[in-house]
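lol so apparently i was supposed to do this last week
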Amino acid sequence: MISFSLNDTAKAFLLSIAMLIAVLGAWELATPAAKSAGELSEYEMLTGGGGQQASVPAPSQVITKAIDELSNPFYDNGPNDKGIGIQLAYSLYRVLTGYFLAALIAIPVGFLIGMSPIMYKALDPFIQVLRPISPLAWMPLALFIIKDSQASAIFVIFICSIWPMLINTAFGVANVRKDWVNVAKTHELSHLKTAFLVILPAAAPTILTGMRISIGIAWLVIVAAEMLVGGTGIGYYVWNEWNNLDLTSVIFSILMIGIVGMVLDTIFAFIQRAVQFQE
Amino acid sequence: MSKSFIEVTGLTKRFPAPKGGEPLTVFENANFGIEKGEFVCIIGHSGCGKSTIMNILAGLDQPTEGGIVMGGKEVSGPSLDRGVVFQNYSLLPWLSALKNVMFGVRARHPEWSRSQVYEHSQKYLEMVGLTGGAEHRKPAQLSGGMRQRVSIARAFAIQPQLLLLDEPFGALDALTRGTIQDELTRIWSGSEQTVFMITHDVDEAILLSDRILLMTNGPYARVAESVVVDIPRPRDRAEIIHNPGYYKIRNHLVEFLARRSKELAGNREHSGEPPVTVRPAKDDADDKERQSTSRPKLVSIAS
Ligand SMILES: Nc1ncnc2c1ncn2[C@@H]1O[C@H](COP(=O)(O)OP(=O)(O)O)[C@@H](O)[C@H]1O
Ligand SMILES: [Mg+2]
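anyway here it is w/ magnesium ion bound
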């Protein structure tokens, strides 16, 4: 049984590698070498005529670029030339700040809503209206009121990550098994102790699900937000490299966005597993 | 007549009417008492209101009318003086068996040090025979019998004046049930605790209790009879069936459940009367033996 599942894992791994090689190989072959500019591919014509900068780079070029960038990720040569590490750090700083502030509000308010059916009914219409608004729609208002692009980006992250956490916390708290609340009652626990010792651990898996969804959305939104506000961050970097027609850098940064997103998700998956319990 | 340790007076529970229906009166004007240190079982058909009575005793539910006085104090809410063991164990699934017991002990003795809490909890886990690594497992990794042991250990460890058990062995196989019944009797007989237990198992009730309350079918259920179990302790499950009183009590109980619980159902003629005391085994038990229904010391069964 175990060796069977190990085999499956190994098979899946080999299959992944094979697919990667196939895709990269096809991509490499489909990309005309920069020197043989005689025949223009369809894409080169579309992107403006086969100039060396504008052509879609081959994977080998992207890998060379990646090695180059990652060997010195934190250099800083002025506003338009910072290492990928610095750009990612700016983005992560904004994401984590906005996200943390959102959690600070969403979890206690979610608790309140979950505990009180009246509060749930009272706040529900506001949540239903505010939740479907694209976080970027808040940007002009945020820029006008806060008058600071950095803080506005953080606000946008705040507003997009608050809803899944709020809704999941409320749902988790409202659905804590009555038996467990009765255990707290028969042990004469105070409201505060009941909240921390019984309701929080009971609702933790649901809350963590909300937190995991939120961090995923926050990471999606930060790229778009930084494209709008500019200055620093991975979103700005992508846009800036596009303006420079440096597609190698664009593809490289897309890859980095994916990897950082995956790492964030893995961390939350890990915490989620830690608070999970079996009934 | 002297007041009992627990006085149930005029207890009535009505559930509000579902849409278009009449309110459901589970029981009305119930009156009975329980003495200190007594082991009382309550038997009745499913749905007659046993759990409702117990939840009111626990303070988890409020009566529509009437009230309960325990040790001279009105029961007005849940309290550590009344420990509860639910049918579905109600352990906190994210805590290990040991931590579940420690949770109760810490609530009871917030001033204790960690090691005091730990030792006290371990002691009670040992009493129910849960040691050797099993105490570090989460409830989901324990069998039903082990979970119920943890639940009993948690309830006993807070040393409540009254222990309430709602069909605690209902979901267990006969063998496990027997072992835990023995453990329960052993722990109880070494303590001062009063026990109020719901069961639907006639033999279990005779084996464990001093007195058995019989409830008629609902709605308007009544605690109609109080059957005294005149069988000396310590009782052994293999020996007890040879006691001449055993089948007299058993037949009385079965007859009540099979016939009279239905006949008396909904009869409000005797509403408000305390249960009739019945002693089916009395004629056979000589006086000396009857005196020994007072509880034995723990040493007497340790041999
Ligand atoms: N919350 C409730 N609302 C309405 N009816 C209830 C509620 N709880 C119990 N009942 C009814 O009260 C009666 C007694 O229930 P219960 O005390 O659980 O019975 P038992 O434990 O003796 O099987 C049943 O008819 C049940 O349907
Ligand atoms: Mg019941």
